[in-house]
Design goal:
Alpha-D-Glucose-1,6-Bisphosphate, Chain A, domain 4; six-stranded antiparallel beta sheet; 7 helices; 52% helix; elongated
Length: 257
């Protein structure tokens, strides 16, 4: 085997190895965080956000060289394998860019409520659970970072459809429907009281196990029927990239009219 053939073989093996290792790396980073083997700042911040893009760039470069060598070095074969190896980092980098673009177009907030004037207030059950959380439960008057822009104003602009839900159901009937919906969505119930119309639960993300807390408040409406407000707050992270708003929408859609 001549020198170029050896180089081609080396890059092909390296490309295949990186193709297998790259997705495994991201899975380990996510599940390790979820299982509590390390904190989210290491699993998500350092491994996924820090080292992840560098690993994909390395996999891309090695696979590209392997593809070029597959075409120019005799015997001209294995180009399909190299192309498949190239596809993995390309798809990964494309996904990463789409997430970054989405984050740029959304406000840097992590607390979403249908009632921005008098948002539902969490009970001690959730407050006690959030001892390890870096995000507070303050909402009214809170601004984004060091700016003077209110979180409430940014939310209304970004998610105009997230607002108080009005129902013809009596409050007691709506409470039962809401509680059934919480259970159907797989949220972990933390507190519920039909007397106060309050339901609290925690939802965990599949990969990293990020825990977001939810409170539902049901009250009789002055004109008959009832109104429902729901609030969803992330435990950690400055931006939820739309996760809390989407959770509220899914709950709303599953609850129905």
């Amino acid at each position: 085997m001549d020198k170029l053939a050896k180089i081609k073989s080396y890059f092909m093996k390296a490309a295949i190895g990186l193709t297998v290792f790259t997705p495994v790396f991201f899975v380990i980073a996510a599940l390790g965080t979820k299982m509590g083997l390390w904190g989210w700042k290491f699993g998500f911040g350092k491994l996924t956000v820090g080292y992840g893009p560098k690993l994909m760039m390395l996999a891309f470069g090695v696979a590209l060289i392997a593809l070029i060598l597959a075409f120019v070095v005799k015997p001209r074969k294995d180009w399909l394998v190299a192309l498949l190896c190239l596809a993995v980092p390309v798809v990964g980098m494309g996904f990463g860019k789409s997430i970054k673009a989405k984050a740029r177009n959304l406000p840097f907030i992590h607390d979403i409520t249908t009632d921005t004037q008098t948002p539902p207030t969490f009970t001690q059950a959730i407050i006690d659970r959030r001892v390890q959380c870096s995000n507070s439960l303050d909402y009214v008057g809170v601004t984004i970072g060091n700016s003077d822009k209110l979180v409430s104003a940014a939310q209304v602009k970004a998610y105009p459809d997230v607002r108080t839900l009005v129902f013809s159901d009596e409050a007691a009937d709506l409470y039962k429907r809401a509680l059934s919906t919480v259970n159907a969505m797989g949220w972990k119930l933390a507190f519920s009281s039909e007397d106060t119309g309050i339901i609290e639960a925690t939802d965990s993300s599949f990969w990293f196990g990020f825990k977001d807390d939810v409170i539902i408040r049901i009250r009789p409406s002055e004109g008959g029927g009832s109104i429902l407000d729901i609030r969803s707050v992330s435990c950690v992270g400055g931006s939820d990239i739309g996760a809390n708003a989407n959770r509220i929408r899914k709950f709303r859609d599953k609850l129905g009219n």
